[in-house]
Amino acid sequence: MSIDFESLKDKAVVLAQSGVTKAKELTETGIAKAKELADTGATRAKELTEIGKLKVNNSAEQEAIRKAYSELGKLYYAERGSAPEAAYADACQRITDAMARISYNNERIADIKAAGQLTDEEVEAVETDAEDAPCCCEAKEDEPCCCETSAEDEDKTE
Question: If you ran DSSP here, which 8-state letter would residue 54 be given?
Fold first, then answer.
């Protein structure tokens, strides 16, 4: 039994070349696929960035609308608050009532400051502490807020 080394060598070279060719094809395919995935990822990132920017722009526009509505309401109240059209009478009355309560509260503050000989600095320190204190309603979602005036409380003040 004789071994034909030359034939084995030729077969080994052919197999090696075939393996190298296959490896090159797989590498090229892998590189193409990786490039495609990278391009897709970059495109998706650009799209998501644009969506994010548009959402921020929408938020700014919504804030502009809210401010315009507020200005519109203030203008209407200033011009027509004393004799509003029927559809606006309730809202105008709530504003008028709230302004009256604020005026009353400010008078009481002035009276208390004068009677107790309190300085503005002492009063401001109390106001700062009150602003920093958490609202009781933040911890109790199912109970009515003590900071808001309920319809029953409004009836009692009238």
Answer: H
- Say whether pTM exceeds 0.85: no
Nearest to 98 by CA among 81, 112, 85: 81
Are the C-beta atoms of 145 and 135 separated by less than 8 Å? yes
**3 state SS of 145:** coil
Q: Tell me which residue of 59, 95, 61, 90 sits closest to 75, measured CA to CA.
A: 95
Q: Are 115 and 123 in contact (CB under 8 A)?
A: no
| pLDDT above 60 for 144 | no
Torsion sign (Cα): 52, 58, 60, 66 = negative
Q: Which segments of 4-100 are extended strands (E)?
A: none
Please report which confidence band the pLDDT of residue 124 belongs to, taking 50, 70 and 90 as the band edges. Answer: confident
Give the three-state DSSP class for 85: coil
